[in-house]
Design brief:
The protein has about 150 residues and is mainly β. It has one domain. The chain contains two helices and twelve strands. It has helices spanning about 105-110, 130-140, and strands at about 10, 15, 20-25, 30-35, 35-40, 45, 50-55, 65-70, 75-80, 80-85, 90-95, 110-115.
Length: about 150
């Protein structure tokens, strides 16, 4: 599963903050934590998720805003979630709809490869210069970054 899609999959381990990993879908592209719990208004709070995908940037980062880097890689706010761009892929932590968006950064910091070290203090693999330049052009400069193109 770790390389079934041609790139390493990242998740938050078998549990995160007391919520167990309950499902893995799309050959390791989607990790679901917890179960859907119905609220009094008839709605269903979605479970916590980690989504893995290719680092395609055309159109996918429209409406994004740069955040402080997380574990050495660019992070953007996109569609209520946080997306990390690392070498070869993007990892998205979607907002769960419960209004706890402040925890998204902590959840993003906790990602680790399915097959690899569980050390969440290590930097993630840096993305290519193309990704960095595209993010600067589409999402603006990150904090401490002046939005200048990265030179070879």
């Amino acid at each position: 599963m770790a390389a079934a899609n041609g790139r390493p999959s990242y998740f938050r381990g078998r549990s995160y903050a007391g919520i167990d990993l309950t499902a893995v879908e799309d050959e390791g592209d989607l990790f679901i934590y917890g179960t859907c719990e119905y609220r009094g208004d008839g709605g269903c709070a979605p479970p916590r998720q980690v989504q893995n995908g290719p680092e395609h940037l055309s159109g996918a980062v429209r409406g994004c805003a740069r955040l402080r880097d997380i574990r050495g890689v660019p992070a953007v706010s996109l569609g209520g979630g946080v997306v990390l761009f690392k070498r070869g892929s993007a990892v998205k932590i979607p907002d769960d709809g419960t209004g706890t968006g402040g925890d998204l950064r902590n959840m993003a910091q906790a990602v680790r490869p399915v097959s690899g070290p569980a050390d969440v203090t290590r930097p993630l693999p840096a993305p290519t210069k193309y990704v960095l330049n595209t993010l600067a052009a589409k999402c603006g400069a990150g904090p401490g970054d002046h939005g200048r193109p990265i030179e070879d």
